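User: For a benchmark we're assembling, each entry needs the component sequences followed by a predicted structure for the full assembly. Here are entry 17's components. Please fill in the structure.
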Amino acid sequence: MPSLYVHIPFCVRKCEYCDFYSEAAGERDIDRYLVALECEFTLRYPDGIAPETVFLGGGTPTRLSAEQLRTLGEIFKRRVDLSRCIEFTCEINPGTLTPEKADALVALGVDRASFGVQSFNPDFLKSLGRIYEVGTPPQAVAMARAAGITRVSMDLMFALPGQNLTQLRDDLHQALSFGTEHLSLYALTYEDDTPLTRDLQSGKVQPCPEELERAMFSTVGDFCAKSGLQRYEVSNFARPGAECRHNLVYWRVGEWAGLGAGAHSMLDHEIIENAADHKAYADALEAGKLPFVRREKLTVGRQVETLLLMALRLDEGVEVARLDALIGEKFTARAADALETLTRQGLIECGAHLRCTDRGLMVLDSVILEIACVLDRTTALPA
Amino acid sequence: MAEYPLSNIRNFSIIAHIDHGKSTLADRLLQSSAAFDQRKLREQTMDSMDLERERGITIKAKAIALPMVIRGENYLFNLIDTPGHVDFGYEVSRAMHACEGALLLVDTTQGIQAQTVANMYQAINADLTVIPLANKVDMVASRYEETVAEMHQVFGIKEEEVIKCSGKTGIGVPEILEAIVDRIPPPKGDRDNPLTALIFDAVYDDYRGVVLYVRIRDGFLEPRQKIAMMATGKEFEVLEVGVARMGLIKQPVLETGCVGYVVCGVKSIQDVGIGDTITLASSKDVVKPLPGYKKPQPMVYAGIYPTQASDFENLRKGLQKLSLSDSSFTYVPEQSGALGHGFRCGYLGLLHMDIVQERLERESGLELVMTAPNVHYEILTPKGEVVKIERAADLPDPSQYEEIREPIVRLNVITPTDSIGDVIKLSLERRGLYQNQEHLGQGRAMLTFKMPLSEIIFDYFDRLKSITHGYGTMDYELIGFEAADLVKVRIMVAAEDVDALAMIVHKQFAESRSRKVLIKLKDEIPRHLFVIALQAAVGGKIIAAERIGSVGKNVTAKCYGGDVSRKRKLLEKQKKGKARMKMIGGVEVPQEAFLSILQVDNED
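Assistant: Structure for entry 17:
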């Protein structure tokens, strides 16, 4: 059975750096959305779905009221068999959690909380457009734990405009002070058409110098390692055994069903994309139609690329035998040109697994591009 | 058209600086003709190629036959269009030799400009009767009095000769029509003499093959005549003659003094000499060719290479097809160590080069790499031979030649007087020799320099526009070749000699330009996974060096909730970008880098 992702596309307000689909909406929109979501479950999985991992993401799932979360819980009871589920994560914006909502999440089946903290520094919180105060995250973590959520992960951002290494260490230190077993540490990315990017373009915001960003990338690795968290993906760190099983499904390119507005699925080498707009999404389902806006069956070539794009992000890399099986010949022979150069440059290692070195991870996009271009140049992949 | 006696025919062209309103006035004249269907009249009828339309210039001359009724009498006006740009000076001169008169159009909001002067001199050389027109008098910014004063000062034109007009509103158009009848002499010629006809233009037509535009001097042209081209000696049979209007209109005969077209089975425009004389095959040994024929000489050369080596044949086909409709560019295969197989193309000038390259990319759909243009040089060998060098990489070691010569032009610049100092400074920096200065009134002056052509194609025009705040205009003509202290600068990327970036520069500029080229290359070449050394050398001596550091950090931080398409789209985009690059010594060099020699900002 595929893993399950459920998207809640609502936020209290949109953050300055975010280009992910979400929007401020009224309570009626949310109620309507939940009805549509159940329709999608019914249409796609009439006999129910029994995922091994579940991820409730957004937007802001905790933007829903306790009542609405309980409604979502009812939908899950009717549609999702959690008997085989080994991990159920919910993204939590610390500013939106209440004890009542925490209880509703536990009732829903959530056993892992991913807190979108981003920073503990009030200045950065403000510049990122986050809605809560400095004291909020500790309270939110306490609420989650009191309700019975045992596994705690936190998202932090670094390479923020004006941030220095001391401030970064301070954030890391605070993040780990809650018995946190997992950290997602993202370098701030300037996405197109976000307020932050406009400020960057107009010169209002100075980006983090590249040298400093590199130093920060190393710092987060070292800091986490000293605290017993290993980098197992470009931006993710965990105590041994505490890796996010759900996200590993993405990175290892397994199968997942994404439900809700804007969600993506990967099922039987096919990408399925749902309508991003929650109204269009609900309209489709109310008319008894699937909310799909795009389906793409991946060719072998694209499967290979997708696997490289995802799995090379992992410390474990990608199993060469899997690439061989996909392309029907020796991957290492086909990509020899790129592999030799990249190995010589100290960016990759290629044994039973193809994986990036620490230096390689830092320039991963370039590494993948080199390999992908060599694959394109050698004989065309079978369709 | 036989109903028009010679005395009722007028052949003329309009000469003007770019944007002085030539096409608008031409449209006005067309509208005055009874023969025109107004609905079909496109805004600028005489510019037929899209590209010309976009650039607002007329590249290829054409002739339009306009039946007119003036003061109750029937006349035939043949309006011969001329290209307005310096690159096409020879074509302009041929078109003028097909006329008896010219309308000199000056925009009164701008005054006389460099190409007004150049065109006027050509009209005088062609012995044309000139009707001066002061255009755009309806505009608030019009400075009629000053413009007339300038015309008087520069060309000796009397105020009473000048007709006030506005192509846009139609002011003055009736006066212009009468002046054409009254002032421009009718064509002379004798129908009973053996045929002589001047070829002043040729265009390629998908249905007819090459269509020649001709002016009949003596005799007449009609289908089934056997004719000969006097310069090439080739013989053809006339298939069709006619006149051009909204399209080509077949006629039974082209009479003495007339302007029209001939179709005679010419397959490629390369087989036609603009300026050549057509006569009857039977009389080619008895008549004298009309004067002034020249083979067009390329002034500027640049390499064109396909991004994908496998597109070489497609590129050849594209060039071949283009050459059917443009006789003035040349192309020969060449090989570059850095770029592989491509072609060396010769152009009349930079504008001509831009047009050809743009058409080629548009019409062939190929991804192309263009090298920076250069002029051609001559070297004198110890044995006294003169050898032409068309690209810097081909220049041998200095021990192999006695001297190297470069093309020199006479450059006319018209500038506001408050920029004279800057223009002189710029021109002297570019190795110009100051020759003359003439005040035009209206706070403007014309400056004349002798200058190496290579310095002009090295962004002189852009700099001129910048220091004169857009008001400066220029025109030049080749006056010969002169020896100079020139050296070849080699550019190396990752220790590999990039022949396509080699340049010939004056010794005094070798170091400063090399440094700027390297800095430009540093901007153009993306960082790689390794450090890239950039070097410039004269002979064995490194005269400038730069380095491009390796990629520092390049990794997408976040992978969005199961959305793998997003990352793949990014990869596709990067792959496309990479495909446009040329591999040199393991370094991917973008196409723009090959033009970097030219775009160097020369502030010193």
